[in-house]
Design brief:
It contains three helices and no strands. By secondary structure, the protein is mainly alpha-helical. The protein has helices spanning about 1-20, 25-45, 50-80. It has two domains: about 1-45, no CATH class; about 50-83.
């Protein structure tokens, strides 16, 4: 019991310091952080389904462009051969 009274001010100081430095997370802080992370994620990232759909559409467009370029190339080669 003697040591309790001896070290009590130091223990209170350490507890107060930890609380002031906000070492421990509070429930409302965690909820605010969760909401901020969800908002950030929704603004900066897309879902896998959206990515897959857009990736497939982009591949289809690239294939169409490739076939169009091949058609133009063949037309140019044919026009050069006629001359």
């Amino acid at each position: 019991m003697e040591h309790l009274f001896e070290y009590a001010p130091f223990a209170l100081f350490v507890i107060n310091l930890l609380l002031c430095l906000r070492i421990f997370a509070r429930v409302e802080d965690m909820n605010n952080l969760k909401a901020e992370l969800m908002t950030y994620g929704m603004e900066h990232f897309v879902t896998k389904d959206t990515y897959s759909d857009n990736h497939k559409a982009l591949q289809d467009q690239m294939l169409q462009i490739h076939s169009d370029i091949s058609d133009v190339k063949n037309l140019l080669i044919n026009s050069i051969n006629r001359v």
